[in-house]
């Protein structure tokens, strides 16, 4: 699966993490994929659920083993 | 005139250090006041008090500086705005609750509905000492369930099914207790139930609803947060049935009545009498089918 855009939110904390993802997703069309690089802890615990609540589908999560994760999100994948 | 302080206290009047003045406690369930109630509270505070209220640590409102002579008038006036006075003394106290799943996205149980039901069933019940219930909607524990003599926390037991799972790995990533292992290559998901704290984060994040679950109650007993500090203990598995919860409450309150000395808190009694006896009585009811 290839991402259409990439976003790094390891430099911000909640709720800015979510705001940045929302803005990035605005730029994409339904069916396109966003790759997100985010931190362990609050971001990984909260961001996937918020995305689900907003109707986007997580395709996969990869634990990079350095306290960060990579998330593949399908825009509008649940609506 | 002799003043019956015991009667006054029952009616939620705290004697102030200023002679003949009382800080009036208002009844509150789950931290909610309606706008109508607030309007009445405002007018009473202005007319009979000193124009301010005090928010207590357990979601209550007190109106300080009510004069003894005004007590009856104030009670009647408040009642017209749907406001009742609260309780003090050796009985079931204000029942506290977070907003729960009626409002909060993290909520797993309807804490407000439960608090109202508990109020109907147990409010003001006479006991050897005060007894506090608190309801919190999920493992985030905004309402601090374990501070209460009996705390109830919303939980959910994850139930994974293979057919919808896309082995994305989200559940493993979001689990704060590292209770889940997703093997993407072998297409398997394993849950270590001993590590699970019923927080429901895996379920709320799962993109395909492969991980679902039934919400229930995680109960703790014997919390204290005053002169003595003790964390409520949880020894029961998650309970799914509200009727079962009520049955457990009855056992706990009866045990308190039967074993506590007058003026002894629930926790102090449990530590003195021994937890084993209490645990076995509660488990007997909890395990009944
Ligand atoms: C301490 C600072 C801030 C806090 C606590 C905060 C908090 C929040 C919260 C809680 C939301 C709701 C998110 C949701 O939909 O669940 C939100 C939305 C939003 N925030 Fe902020 N924010 C802050 C700063 C900013 C800044 C600096 C900007 C822009 C420069 C911003 C732009 C937005 C936008 C555009 C939304 C709407 C997203 C949507 O469509 O829902 N915020 N903010
Ligand atoms: S305890 Fe849970 S349900 Fe209650 S307010 Fe906090 S996060 Fe929401
Ligand atoms: S989050 Fe859901 S779909 Fe993803 S691995 Fe876990 S159970 Fe499967
Ligand atoms: S309910 Fe919470 S603790 Fe239990 S497996 Fe799911 S995320 Fe982990």
- The order of strands across the largest sheet of chain B is 1-2-4-3
What does the oligomeric state look like here?
heterodimer
CATH topology of chain A: Translation Initiation Factor IF3
Mean pLDDT of chain B: 93
Task: Report the CATH C-level class of chain A.
Answer: Alpha Beta
Largest sheet of chain A: 4 strands, mixed
- Reading off the top of the CATH hierarchy, the class of the largest domain in chain B is best stated as Alpha Beta
Radius of gyration of chain A: 11 Å
Rough outline of chain B: globular
Order of helices and strands of chain A: EHEHEE
**Distance between the amino and carboxyl termini of chain A:** 20 Å
**How helix-rich are the residues of chain B, as a percent range?**
25-40%
Proper CATH architecture of chain A: 2-Layer Sandwich
Number of helices of chain A: 2
Query: How do the helices and strands follow one another from N- to C-terminus of chain B?
Result: HEEHEEHEHEEHEEHEEEHHH
Which percent range describes the beta-strand content of chain A?
Answer: 25-35%
Taken together, the total number of domains of chain B comes to 2
The helix content of chain A is 25-40%
**Total domain count of chain A:** 1
Morphology of chain A: globular
Question: How would you describe the overall organization of this protein?
Answer:
The complex is a heterodimer of chains A (79) and B (289). By secondary structure, chain A is α+β, with helices and mostly antiparallel strands. Chain A has 2 helices and 4 strands; from the N terminus they run βαβαββ. Chain A has a single domain (5-74), classed as Translation Initiation Factor IF3 (2-Layer Sandwich). Helix content of chain A is 29%, strand content 32%. The longest helix of chain A is centred in the middle third of the chain and has 12 residues, at 42-53. By secondary structure, chain B is α+β, with helices and mostly antiparallel strands. Chain B has 9 helices and 12 strands. In chain B, strands 1-2-4-3 form a 4-stranded antiparallel sheet. In chain B, strands 5-6-7-10 form a 4-stranded mixed sheet. In chain B, helix 2 (35-47) packs antiparallel against helix 3 (71-80) and helix 7 packs antiparallel against helix 9 (275-287). The longest helix of chain B is centred in the last third of the chain and has 18 residues, at 242-259. Chain B is globular and about 80 Å long. The chains are: A alpha+beta (79), B alpha+beta (289). The interface between A and B is medium-sized, with 16 and 15 residues. The site of one iron/sulfur cluster has 14 residues of chain B, from helix 6.
